[in-house]
Amino acid sequence: MNLSEISPAIALTPLDGRYHAQTAALVEYLSEPALNRERMRVEVEWMILLANGFAGNDWKPIVTGVKPLTEQEQAFLRSIPEEFGAQGIARHAAHEAVTHHDVKAVEYYIDDYLDSAEQVLGAPTQLTDLKTLVHFACTSEDINNLSIARCVKNAIEHVWLPGADAIVDLLAQRAEEFKDMPLLSLTHGQPATPTTLGKELAVYVYRLGRQLKHVREQEYLGKINGATGTFGAHLAALPNVDWVAVSREFVENRMGLTWNPLTTQIESHDWQAELFDTISHTNRIMHNLCVDTWMYISRGVFAQVPVKGATGSSTMPHKVNPIRFENAEANFEISCSLLDTLAATLVESRWQRDLTDSTTQRNIGSALGYSVLAHNNLLGGLKSVHPNTQVMDRELDENWEVLGEPIQTAMRAQELAGRSGMERPYEKVKELMRGHSISQADVESFIDSLDFDDETAARLKALTPATYVGLASMLVGYDRP
């Protein structure tokens, strides 16, 4: 049995197979049918604008010989994309099989609907004679750039951002919850100045918050200006129309995008590169979070909640593997590789047009899909871990040498204040603590051996590795940029 002959077709990629349930929401915006549906929306809204005008044009038809469309006629046109389902997908595919051109197939698909307008509306209508208004003065890229921008914008706002926000919100909640929970830091993998678990999580809240702010402020540009961006065909047909104003009205007020006044045949895709770079950067921050959490689990700082019935290892029954974080790492890496390629490729076009962007942009769904899949894995992983305070307390109690930093810094301050016996503070503390196992008694004895003023001596002797966390708890309040 050939697997390729099985019906329905077996998915080639894990996004549409094994992980379909986790990425299906993107189908609504970034699948091929979703793009075709958006193309239909652009086409019919362009028809409505040309027929009915806009405020800056005194609501007069832009195209001579076309009467303003009635509310019923406009509703009929807008129903074309809204009713685009399984039968519509098949009908569009049949047109494309003949045209070998996806946008032309959309045009013919709309023509089919116009043929049925009178029957559907139950009365004579000019729509049956308006096939020539479909795709009027447009090049395919006029339709495509607007459709893709709207598809991506909706996918980001309705799917990607909510998933990223859920991670940041959970991290912020945990940062606040654990802001006073002391944690031994490891710099270069070695014991270092203690912090708190909440403060370390808050670092990620802040880093991610900055990137998500950039995503929310992202411009989505669009154009509708003809084959090489000159409005040449528009002026040849209707020289008295202010086509610049019409274009701007359509892109900004009808499509909800930022108008790009200067393009070649294509909208230059710089906004896409900006967005994909930002998402890739966000992915990498979350990848860093996955790695850190994985290592906290390995170290015992985080304990995992076992899933009843789940298998950690096929041969070692005791294991609870941090697979959610490992899966998230891998999927973030795949997403970044695709996003980086998109960002690098889309900003270049040979002179006024080449078609590499068309092929490349068909992978936007995959690029965001792997990121969304990673979000799901990371969020599930974060929900399944909790601090192991016994391990954290033991680590701190076994590393009194980390108090060498505050002691030598206090010695510097005392020397500058004129206190005798405080010279070479770094070297003295280094001789005591570097490469040695240090106890609380050793620290107190060293403090007593020096001529600290009483207040400083008492303050230093009151310190423990668990209390030497500086302003870590307070800094959690700065986690939202």
Describe this structure in words.
There is one protein chain. With 481 residues, the protein is mainly alpha-helical. The protein has 3 domains: 24-133, Fumarase/aspartase (N-terminal domain) (Fumarase C, Chain B, domain 1), CATH 1.10.275.10; 142-305 and 321-389, Up-down Bundle (Fumarase C, Chain A, domain 2), CATH 1.20.200.10; 400-464, Ribonucleotide Reductase Protein R1, domain 1 (Orthogonal Bundle), CATH 1.10.40. The chain is 59% helix and 5% strand. It has helices at residues 20-23, 27-30, 32-52, 71-82, 86-99, 102-115, 117-121, 140-177, 197-216, 232-237, 243-254, 270-299, 323-346, 356-361, 364-383, 389-397, 404-416, 425-433, 440-448, 454-462, 472-475; strands at 182-187, 190-196, 221-222, 258-259, 302-304, 385-387. Strands 1-2 form a two-stranded antiparallel ribbon. Strand 1 (182-187) and strand 2 form a beta hairpin. Helix 3 runs antiparallel to helix 4 (71-82). 40% of the residues are buried. The model has no long low-confidence stretch (mean pLDDT 95).
